[in-house]
Design a protein that fits this description.
The chain is α+β, with helices and mostly antiparallel strands. Helices cover about 30% and strands about 30% of the residues. A hairpin with a 2-residue loop joins strand 1 and strand 2. Helix 2 packs parallel to helix 3, helix 2 crosses helix 6 and helix 4 crosses helix 5. The longest helix is centred in the C-terminal third of the chain and has 17 residues. About 35% of the residues are buried. The mean pLDDT is about 90.
Length: about 200
């Protein structure tokens, strides 16, 4: 990710799928469920882009997102949530959030977006206890959200941090950034998928 930063790209902790005609990026902290949600969305037919990092690249028409690797890293609970209990590998224990299995996106359960695709929307995921809430962020909020979900930002030298902030400001001028608060728990994934498909696909 340091190399991408040095090239002027902003690197965001995000899963992503193609929803409609463009990429929907799902920004979230580690352990929030972005990989699980990305897998659920991909399993409904939305092409899989990445489950970990997106690095939007400025192009003439806006921003493009190169694809990551064709796999998603999931815990035992997440594998069960997406594929069913029988799909959890033997010896993989539930209740161990640091133990993950790489599940390949091989065409059997989801398609992989091999070519870069236009970035359409960014959604910041948050877990809460007040039900569902989706709102468009103001530009200053959106810049802060992109900075908060950047990869390895505290490790960068000052000159690259400044470049990173400028890149974030340019992105929010072109790309809508929203905040989606969803209830805690894997049992709500189906409703969350339906909401995102309704809004963006």
């Amino acid at each position: 990710s340091y190399v991408l930063h040095a090239r002027g790209n902003i690197n965001l902790h995000a899963g992503a799928v193609v929803a409609g005609q463009s990429v929907l990026g799902l920004l979230a902290e580690a352990g929030t469920g972005k990989s699980t949600l990305t897998a659920h969305l991909a399993a409904t037919g939305l092409p899989f882009v990445t489950d970990d990092i997106i690095a939007p690249v400025a192009v003439e028409s806006g921003y493009a997102v190169p694809s990551g690797f064709p796999y998603v890293s999931l815990t035992a609970e997440s594998i069960e949530s997406v594929f069913g209990a029988s799909s959890v590998p033997d010896g993989m224990s539930r209740g161990t959030p640091d133990v993950k299995e790489r599940v390949h996106v091989d065409g059997d359960w989801a398609t992989f977006q091999e070519q870069p695709a236009s970035l359409g929307n960014l959604v910041v995921l948050a877990r809460g206890d007040a039900g569902y809430s989706l709102r468009r962020l103001e530009k200053h909020e959106a810049v802060l959200a992109l900075v908060q979900h950047s990869v390895a930002l505290p490790l960068l030298p000052k000159e690259l941090i400044g470049r990173h902030m400028a890149a974030a400001a340019k992105i929010v001028e072109a790309i809508p950034v929203s905040r989606l608060e969803v209830p805690r728990g894997l049992e709500h994934m189906g409703e969350t998928v339906e909401l995102l498909r309704r809004e963006y696909a």
